Fold this protein.
Amino acid sequence: MTQKKRVLAAGLIAAILLIVIDQATKYLAQTGLAGKRGVTLIPGVFELFYLENTGAAFGMFDQKQWFFVFIALVMAVASAYVYLRLPQDGHYHALRVICVLIAAGALGNMIDRVVHHYVIDFLYFSLIDFPVFNVADCYVCVGTAAAVVLLFTVYRDDSFEFLR
């Protein structure tokens, strides 16, 4: 198997694994938390709290499921495009991981929107009254934050000539 095929297989397996973890945690939240008050893990700081989110962050764009499905597909396709175009040297390994995180997060929430017509959220930081979120949201946020940091610290404009 060529290096490119190994990298492609690794990315695909990683994305599938991340999606399975996301969907498993949502299933556990739905079966264990739905209809209940929630579970405090760290008093005043962190709780497991079941929420069916029909919008985006902070409940924006409520009931626009097909719009979000479209956006998730665009994010996944864009991530896959960049992943496939990345040079094979180690300098771009972090960007490969970021592409997988963003694609897995987008697809994990898309699955919820298609299957349930809402996204299952269950992680809640009560200390800062942060919106309830899920594992797929973590993938997208961590991937995006890491991309921003890397774009400002590691990569230069000419690092992305391969995308032209």
The chain has one domain: 3-163. The chain has a mean pLDDT of 91. The radius of gyration is 17 Å.
